[in-house]
Design brief:
Layout: H1 2-12, H2 15-31, H3 36-43, H4 53-56
């Protein structure tokens, strides 16, 4: 049981480092060039015109 407590104390010392690494991973994913087209396309979803008028009328033509 003593060893588990030692590991927990050691891990608590680096929580800020772990959170920073996690945050930097998210930022890297968001700015990765391969993901840019998908994110740009998803950002325009609210501004697109509805091509199918059936959906704008609640499914009624």
């Amino acid at each position: 049981m003593e060893t588990l407590q030692d590991i927990a104390v050691f891990a608590r010392q680096f929580w800020g480092v772990w959170l920073m690494v996690f945050f930097m991973g998210i930022v890297a994913y968001a700015y990765w060039p391969r993901n840019r087209d998908r994110f740009d396309s998803n950002a325009m979803i609210p501004l697109r015109d509805d091509e199918d008028k059936e959906w704008t009328n609640g499914g009624r033509p």
